[in-house]
Amino acid sequence: VVVSAADGARQASPVIVARSKGIRISLARESSSVPMEINVIGQTVEEATDTVEKFLDQAFLEGLPRIRIVHGMGMGILRKALRSHLAKHPQVAEVSEPPQNQGGAGATVVELRQ
Description:
Shape: elongated
Helix content: 25-40%
Largest sheet: 4 strands, mixed
């Protein structure tokens, strides 16, 4: 990859030059703009799945290690549907129920692949 300088001269990208010298480059943001928790209580299964899918993409791109989804207890329809969807998701490493004092069956903890 080559980038053009303002005067028209072509220069190698600083990232490529650094990597060619064995320097590892890592970019990190000071703070995440994506929260670690989302609340989908009251949404239909379809709405909640769409909401969680978008949230999951943002969290994954932000590099979050895990997220928490609050879906409420109710009859368990939303919990079962979301957990089933998440278990098959390529960005998800693990789906679990948090301890009772952290939401229990009314929430789901999702460990993301890194």
